[in-house]
Amino acid sequence: MTESEAGLLALLRDLDDPQWLEWPQTYDRGASAIHFRRLVARLGSDFAAHCTAEQDIQDSSEYGRVVVPADATVRGTRIVVCVSKFGSLALVCADNPGAFLGTEEAQAEGELDGADLARVNRALVELGYVVVTEELMESDYDGPSRLPSHVQRPTWWARFFGSF
Fold first, then answer.
1. Where are the beta strands (DSSP E) in 56-143?
2. What span, in angstroms and rounded, lies between the C-alpha atoms of 57 and 104?
3. CB 136 within 8 A of CB 4
4. Looking at the predicted structure, is the pLDDT value of residue 12 above 90?
5. Distance between CA atoms of 138 and 20, rounded to whole angstroms?
6. pLDDT, averaged across the chain
7. Which helix (H) or strand (E) holds 109?
8. Among 16, 89, 93, 148, which one is least packed by beta carbons within 10 Å?
9. Which helix (H) or strand (E) is 122 found in, with range?
10. What is the pLDDT of residue 1?
11. How many CB atoms lie within 10 A of CB 149?
12. Kind plus residue range of the DSSP H or E element containing 52
């Protein structure tokens, strides 16, 4: 595990409050909506494309998703950005969450361009999001929260992006 992965894992543990599964105690729906709209607009501008978005997902710790269309990317694969209701966590995926083992695999298979990924990551960081990797989020969950019974394999993804 790299130092940055260890730091992100420490952040996930800090955000994990068993009393608040779907959103944190300090969650502000209005502020989240404004922040998310800025992300959608920024990605639309950066990729010169209409990015679709789904937001305020009910019964989930995921706030929303932004999709950069395939025809706006170098490799012709859409990019999906998932945003959590917790700590402005954001996850970048090629095609869809779980389609690849992560962005490294998608790049190795020629489905995700490094410059496109860098453009998305730069927008996220500049807007105050914390980018987490799919590989980290798919690792086994070992926190104190009791995840819903329908979760077959507890992962950090299930904790911070899953449905309740």
1. 62-68, 79-84, 89-94, 130-132
2. 28
3. no
4. yes
5. 21
6. 95
7. none
8. 148
9. helix 114-126
10. 55
11. 6
12. strand 52-55
- In this prediction, residue 79 carries a pLDDT of 98
Q: Are strands 79-84 and 89-94 parallel, antiparallel or unpaired?
A: antiparallel
Angle at 17 between CA 80 and CA 62, to 5 degrees: 20
Tokens of 103: 């962005």
List the structure tokens of 6: 């260890």
Residues ≥6 apart with Cβ < 8 Å to 49: 68, 69, 71, 72
Residue 101 CA to residue 98 CA, distance in Å, equals 6
Tell me how far apart the alpha carbons of residues 4 and 50 are, in angstroms, rounded to a whole number: 33
**Single pTM value for the model:** 0.94
Q: Enter the tokens of residue 66.
A: 């932004």
User: Residue with structure tokens 């019974």?
Assistant: 149
Cβ(137)–Cβ(158) under 8 Å? no
Q: Are 57 and 63 in contact (CB under 8 A)?
A: yes
Q: Which residues does 26 contact at the CB level (< 8 Å), separation at least 6?
A: none
Residue with tokens 């779907």: 22
Q: How far apart are CA 93 and CA 100, in angstroms?
A: 8
